[in-house]
């Protein structure tokens, strides 16, 4: 398969055959993913295996046909790249929704796509366990066949794989929202060298991802409260910073400090640049610990734990150990945009709850599976602001913005600032649309930031003990779009809607 | 008095004598302002006149002494300019708080300063009518002597005068947050020509301000529900976009569609660049209506009225006329940051309430008395974002950002972006500190944005029918600081806290 061209000059028209051909290949491969839950069905003796096999058949047939018809002969250029990335998440969500519809687990088309997009974007918002606006009662998480629990977790895990490659290998080539920098920051190969090696890079990074998932699986499995099935699912959902659980009460259901701490540590790891992990695996400890973004990420989490845990200890009278356990879990869960819960943060004291609310606007490191605005962007925003203040005092000085030794170009500064503003715009617009359905301000804000930040649970009517079933259909589609826009770093999706993109 | 130097190169050290001398002059003139409420006392036969006369005496004595001791011999340079601007609002708030303390109307030092700073920054948040955290019951607005009602309104009106001159004549020279642009946009004299003419410019703009205030006073006075005293106070509070009323129920107390519409129109006018008004007065209609910021401001208000009024009409079953009246009043009141109320917006439907919540983040035009982020900055933020999307499609093109015919320099773009980010930072920090006192998320957010945006009323515990009396002392000081920081365009105050400012 031809990969993104290293020459970013756009030519006149878009080769739709290239786009459709590559999409066909992805849909075809989705067929294999769809077969695995059928195995779970056979293991547990459930008769829903047919819905996965039929869906896989559709994926093989449809994807194979597309690939065969449009087999790409030309190389992929920058515009086709944008279309492919956006349409991949969209079309795989449609294909991945099929088993939900065919089996009748989620008969509503909207709900099935919502759940699958929430999986593939590693968001983890669910419509299970609630009543829809049309009065249909969706089954509870514990009541659906295990194969569907596995399918949700697998969607997370595959989505996480996609995001690692996207953010470290593809988006930097497309010049998205400061992603050029993430690449420069990360120790991976540079843009022009990477082109013929996207697949090779992908394999190395996936190796790290698979290894972490396997280690977490083992660590969870050894605990008596978790069987192998629950351990796999939670390992998938952790490493993808997804947040779907096999329990309605999320990780709280296992009620184990050991499990909480294991998941806390692996959520933290999932929020770190995977290129850095790769370097550490190779033995380059110095580069790992010297990384500025990792330090900043750790600092934010440290401050979050200090504030939240001490508020739980002092105000809510938790023991010190419990305050640390619940505080650390929830802070890491939100900063990394995982969205697992062990405690209903809406019932906390106002300080802890508010600080957590602020953390909804942070996000993991670039090149991790974490969503949100991301640490490197916050660092650039902060440095830029400090520079601006100095500039007023010294109007004629030339003051560069630096992260460590690296000077951040004017171009990247501007791109990051624009990203932030677009993020806030889209978040506010999303929240406004949710408010149209009668939700209060906090619930509307919470639903929107939980979707665009790929976090999962929000606030108010969409808090950690609630679900998104009751939201009217239009509202669900708005959140589906927000999840996708957030996961694909805003610009990737947005430029497709710009007239300039389509102009010859 | 020597004015801001046109040479913005900072020299080594700060001449504190210059700063103290100018401050002394301002404090001295505050003495005259303090004498006017004493006249109201004499008219209405209240014995609180002595507290104003004593305060005026202190202002004359203290200010006069400072002026005499430090009579500035040198010209004012950029750093002294920052100190003078920030310290003027602070010291006049301290002096203006004296009558409240001396009379015992607000015996708490914090409350007296809060009320005065809220007045001088045209914020309009009040501590009257509530019980403080120490259990003291502050009097209701209707129960304090009329002289104090007048003093609150007069503080607004003088604060508004200060802001017009500051934003159109002084801040552009200091290079604050894109203020260079406002000046370029406004038809006033350019930076280098202005220096010797600040006083002349001030007089012309104040003429417009006084004229509008007088016309509004007359239009309100002719209505039977308002006597001359109420008409003056509301005209002062409207033109300053202040929002203090003589009634606890704000403008709702007069229950008149005529009064509502008069105030709506004058709030709208108060949110327009006064340099534009000046041009219109001189007969230059074309320049007035061609102004891009004015058009954008009108568009935002129009959309706001359409959304809010139709939600009131359809969902809350208001008549069309009532929906327009209450919707238009509240939208204009919030966009211009006046904060008057005729309806408790927290009881509205979720759509109307949420849209109003979004409008808390807009603000008036530059060079108006309105607070907030301001329209010109939003325009630059939006244009910049659109440009950024085009840039990704055409990576090698050079795409300028334009407002009308004017190209916005990279420098101003960056400054405006930094302003926005700092605004959001400080707002979020303020909200977090308020949450420390046990307030919920919406109340904390509302208090912070109402203070930094100089709006007045917020949400939840600080909604339009509540007050700020119950907030603990530290919280009140945080809001005092936020009002000042917001009113002085963030950077003016913030750079004083930067090490670079004090370094030789
Ligand atoms: K998530
Ligand atoms: K106000």
Structure, explained:
The structure is a homodimer of 504-residue chains. The first copy, chain A, has 504 residues and is mainly α. Helix content of chain A is 64%, strand content 1%. Chain A is built from 21 helices and two strands. A two-stranded antiparallel sheet of chain A has the order 1-2. In chain A, strand 1 (401-403) and strand 2 form a beta hairpin. In chain A, helix 3 (78-103) runs antiparallel to helix 5 and helix 5 (146-174) crosses helix 6. The longest helix of chain A has 29 residues, at 16-44. The radius of gyration of chain A is 22 Å and the shape is globular. Residues 1-11 and 183-195 of chain A have low confidence and may be disordered. At the A-B interface, helix 15, helix 16, helix 17 and helix 18 of A face helix 15, helix 16, helix 17 and helix 18 of B. The site of one potassium ion has 12 residues of chain B, from loops.
Provide tags for this entry.
homodimer; 504 residues; mainly alpha; two-stranded antiparallel ribbon; 21 helices; binds potassium ion; TrkH (chains A, B); potassium:chloride symporter activity (chains A, B)
The gist of it:
With 504 residues, chain A is an all-alpha fold. Chain A has helices at 16-44, 49-70, 78-103, 109-120, 146-174, 179-185, 191-194, 198-221, 228-239, 257-270, 274-281, 285-290, 292-314, 320-335, 350-359, 375-393, 410-435, 441-452, 473-487, 491-494, 499-502; strands at residues 401-403, 406-408. Bound molecules: potassium ion (2 copies).
């Amino acid at each position: 398969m031809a990969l993104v061209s290293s020459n970013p000059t756009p030519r006149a028209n878009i080769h739709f055959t290239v786009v459709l051909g590559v999409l066909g290949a992805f849909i075809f491969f989705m067929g294999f993913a769809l077969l695995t839950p059928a195995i779970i069905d056979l293991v547990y003796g459930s008769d829903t295996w047919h819905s996965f096999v039929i869906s896989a058949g559709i994926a093989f047939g449809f994807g194979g046909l597309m690939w065969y018809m449009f087999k790409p002969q030309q190389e992929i250029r920058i515009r086709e790249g944008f279309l492919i990335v956006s349409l991949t998440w969209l079309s795989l969500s449609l294909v991945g929704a099929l088993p939900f519809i065919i089996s009748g687990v989620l008969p509503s088309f909207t709900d099935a796509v919502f759940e699958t997009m929430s999986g593939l974007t590693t968001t983890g918002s669910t419509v299970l366990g609630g009543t829809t606006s049309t009065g249909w009662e969706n089954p509870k998480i514990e009541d659906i066949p295990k194969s569907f629990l596995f399918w949700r977790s697998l969607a997370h895990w595959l989505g996480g794989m996609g995001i690692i490659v996207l953010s470290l290998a593809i988006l930097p080539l497309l010049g998205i929202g400061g992603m050029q920098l993430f690449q420069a920051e990360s120790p991976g190969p540079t843009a022009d060298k990477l082109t013929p090696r996207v697949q090779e890079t992908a394999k190395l990074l996936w190796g790290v991802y698979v290894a972490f998932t396997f280690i977490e699986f083992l660590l969870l499995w050894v605990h008596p409260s978790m069987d192998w099935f629950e351990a796999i699912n939670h390992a998938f959902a952790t490493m993808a910073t997804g947040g779907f659980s096999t329990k309605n009460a999320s990780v709280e259901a296992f009620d184990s400090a050991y499990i909480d701490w294991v998941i806390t540590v692996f959520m933290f790891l999932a929020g770190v640049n995977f290129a850095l992990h790769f370097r550490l695996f190779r033995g380059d400890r110095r580069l790992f610990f010297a990384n500025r973004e990792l330090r900043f990420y750790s600092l934010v989490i440290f401050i979050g734990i200090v504030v939240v845990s001490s508020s739980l200890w002092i105000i809510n009278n938790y023991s010190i150990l419990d305050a640390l356990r619940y505080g650390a879990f929830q802070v890491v869960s939100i900063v990394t945009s995982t969205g697992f819960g062990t405690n209903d943060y809406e019932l906390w004291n106002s300080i802890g709850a508010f600080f957590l609310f602020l953390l909804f606007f942070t996000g993991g490191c670039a090149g991790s599976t974490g969503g949100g605005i991301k640490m490197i962007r916050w660092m650039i925003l902060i440095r830029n602001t400090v520079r601006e203040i100095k500039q007023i005092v010294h109007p004629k000085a030339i003051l560069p913005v630096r992260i460590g030794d690296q000077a951040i170009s004017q171009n990247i500064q501007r791109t990051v600032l624009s990203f932030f503003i677009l993020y806030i715009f889209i978040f506010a617009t999303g929240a406004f649309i949710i408010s149209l359905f009668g939700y209060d301000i906090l619930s509307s804000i919470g639903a929107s930031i939980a979707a665009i930040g790929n976090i999962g649970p929000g606030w108010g009517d969409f808090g950690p003990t609630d679900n998104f079933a009751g939201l009217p259909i239009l509202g669900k589609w708005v959140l589906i779009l927000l999840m996708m826009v957030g996961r694909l770093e805003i610009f990737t999706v947005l430029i497709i809607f710009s007239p300039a993109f389509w102009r010859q």
